[in-house]
Design goal:
It comes from Hymenobacter luteus. By secondary structure, the protein is mainly beta. It contains 3 helices and 10 strands, in the order H-E-E-E-E-H-E-E-E-H-E-E-E.
Length: about 180
Amino acid sequence: MKKFTVLLSLAVLGACSSDEKASTSASDAKTITFNDFESVAGWNVDPALLDRGRAHSGKYAIKVDKDREFSLTFDMALGQATPTKIKTVHLEAYAFLPSDKATGMLGVQVMDDTNTQQLFGDGIRLGEAVKSYGKWVPVSKDITLPENITAAQHLRLSLWRADASDYVLIDDVKLSIKE
């Protein structure tokens, strides 16, 4: 599986896939990215963006809280994800919400070819999807992308705090091509 570049910016940080984990649990032709967040530890990523010790698998999960609006962010040009046009993606992950004050959104965005303006956004509203607090819960959603997307535009995936006043954890994220 391809290694992805770690991009650092104010709200956008790229994540790397773990070759060993991905090859055993998430590797297939339709997988755009899979991350269990074990491979980003020690990669000059702000350690405050990772939660250690409460992960669904391994040691690390991504988090947002009252001090962090966005998590690590996956970012890739659509043309790098696949040579064919993507119509629908399938987003799945495990979410941990300690209380009903932890909401947040695991979001997918399509950005313009300069990667500066959002053209489309959707995702899993965790406050609506998760009703069991204090434990890891699987969440998923099919997301239909706009028909006018191009290979030069960017696909982003990240956890957004939104209106959460409690911390939110996400682990074992997979984004794949449905059609």
